[in-house]
């Protein structure tokens, strides 16, 4: 059970942990293509994911196969979608964030340095805590990489993408080196231009009410999700700090209890035992809030950004279309290069309409997915909070009964 | 908030109870100051009435303490330490604003003064002390002067200087009494652990306050998110979530207060009590006795020398000095035995009191935690159907 999860070994393949994957995405388990991450290995500064595929599609050589992939290869796949003009009308599933164990590693190192200043019990306890934290971060990064693949597999068009199939099947290294400095700079400028454009483009009033509403909605929603995500992170961090304090208090109470010769020592020992247990529950509460609330918000921060990107691309297509119209009018007026202008105008028109049509469906799906994910997570959050509060209450009350009976 | 003693089976039970309430007095032409109404309820005939109230200022408390310290510390009584002037915690982190008019500061001080008086009247010898009786009963009290030196920190400095002096004398006291050696070690260990515990609890108070602030901040953010969500049912659920979190932040704040007033302050009091240096005074008394013995020996040697010097006047003086120092040695021995006896009794009383205090406080603290969990359950149970209603 999750309750004792902090004491478990690396058993993240248990049924419980398949939960997070489904959390943010409405998974339609389709027998024709099923993707998951069946294993993962954490090495010094990289994580190796085993991507496992089950498929009845004829495109693949076998029905079931696995490959090993690293984070950079996921990014390569994501970027290839973004750069593909054919997919301009889709919400591109957001890329998973880079695995970040720096903070956790730093804490483990600090603990090692401070070993001399604490008792053996304290050291062992804190080490277990940090290892559990490391494991939790690890599980999360696996889940986030898995969600990305599942979203792609669930999308009617993206699942057919050739790069995706190569990603799933090619059992050699994709040799996708991390972006070098020049490329990173180019990216940076691309993003700057994009945001400047974004301002211009969103200024153009849309004829279509649906998109006008979506623009206003998404811009505001994205900012507020960002804020809520940051605030939930801070709240959860404080919760963890408080749980750590209770841990230390429990240790000191234990020492006091063993040192004391009066009959209050029984009290100290009993309360120390109690706090050990409640501390575990508090840490569990923080972890569950992290999973059900913070991760949910972070994910929809990324998804709403992807939706905004879609609107931006549509906006660009609209601008191109309007420019093409103006150019056609000018060409007709001058009676020069009219055919060329007509062709350009038609291409722009088709592009714009294609994007608009698929964008509309994508945005409706986005809302459906979002509502379902929030519902699932909020319900689970409330249920877990209740479970933990009841657990805490029971521990406190039974301890009180014992202590009061003694006096 | 009273730390009530309700242990009828224990020998030393309360014979007087005091409670404090604070009020601001505005003096015309001068700055406003804080006065404390001290109400005493007692059945002892030491006092004129059974229930009475007086007004006291903070400096009056310090004055009372300095009188008691000068009278009783050196004969081995554990005198409750004076309340601190500033509220800076063990971890040197300001747990609250230093704003002297802030409600939080006033409450902390009021509570600290109340606990100080309760400890003083709990002490059977101090309760009967005329200064204490005057403090509790008299309408007018002569203003204590130079409170700088009288503050808790000031007394501590004095005591620590004395202790340092003793240590510097590099006197290895021949401890014939194993009880004292054991007790001193116990007290030292207790001091170390209590300080550690106090620091951890202060850290907890800090983080709980932080949690409360961050939860409130998140609640606002969730409300904003709910406002911009265009799915009606989800929007409502998010607003409800915001409300739940707002209530929870209040809960955290209250819990932080309980953490502090019940737990942290008690620990702080005990740390200060232990460092009152009662064992050091015994050492000082012992060394005074030893010095007298050394002096007596010297005087005897001097007299022996004078026997052959044929100086009758000086010889007479030497004999008188010997008598003087013999008396001092006897007094020194008596003082040492007295202080040893007093300390034994005081430590016994202290231990009993400590056991009572801790038991009561721990139970109260756990009850506050129970209340918090019960409220949490209530809030989340109300929210769950709202979340399920999202369609």
TrEMBL record, chain A:
Q: PANTHER family this protein is in?
A: SORTING NEXIN FAMILY MEMBER (PTHR45850), SORTING NEXIN-6 (PTHR45850:SF4)
Q: Which residues form the PX domain?
A: 27-174
Tell me the protein family, please. Belongs to the sorting nexin family.
Q: Which GO terms describe its molecular function?
A: phosphatidylinositol binding
Assigned keywords, A-Z: Protein transport, Transport
Q: Which PROSITE patterns match?
A: PX
Note down the stretches annotated as region Disordered: 1-21
Please give a single GO biological process term from the UniProt record: retrograde transport, endosome to Golgi
Gene3D superfamilies attached to this UniProt entry: Arfaptin homology (AH) domain/BAR domain, Phox-like domain
Originating organism: Astyanax mexicanus (Blind cave fish)
Matching entries from Pfam families are given as: PX, Vps5
Acidic residues: bias regions: 1-14
What CDD domains would the database entry show?
A: BAR_SNX6
What does this chain do?
Involved in several stages of intracellular trafficking.
Q: What is this protein called in UniProt? A: Sorting nexin
Automatic annotation (TrEMBL), chain B:
Query: Could you tell me which residue ranges the PX domain spans?
Result: 14-143
Indicate whether Coiled coil appears among the record's keywords: yes
A Pfam cross-reference name:
Vps5
Query: Which GO biological process entries does UniProt record here?
Result: early endosome to Golgi transport; protein transport
> Does this entry carry the keyword Coiled coil?
yes
Cellular component GO terms, alphabetical: cytosol; early endosome membrane; lamellipodium
Q: Which domain of life is it from?
A: Eukaryota
Where can this protein be found? Cell projection, Lamellipodium; Early endosome membrane
Q: Name one GO molecular function term.
A: phosphatidylinositol binding
Membrane topology for this entry? Peripheral membrane protein
Q: Any coiled-coil ranges, and where?
A: 308-342
Q: Which UniProt keywords apply?
A: Acetylation, Cell projection, Coiled coil, Endosome, Membrane, Phosphoprotein, Protein transport, Transport
The record ties this protein, via PANTHER family, to: SORTING NEXIN, SORTING NEXIN-2
Its biological purpose is as follows: Involved in several stages of intracellular trafficking. Interacts with membranes containing phosphatidylinositol 3-phosphate (PtdIns(3P)) or phosphatidylinositol 3,5-bisphosphate (PtdIns(3,5)P2). Acts in part as component of the retromer membrane-deforming SNX-BAR subcomplex. The SNX-BAR retromer mediates retrograde transport of cargo proteins from endosomes to the trans-Golgi network (TGN) and is involved in endosome-to-plasma membrane transport for cargo protein recycling.
- Family membership, please give it: Belongs to the sorting nexin family.
Q: What protein name is recorded for this chain?
A: Sorting nexin-2
Which species does this protein come from? Answer: Astyanax mexicanus
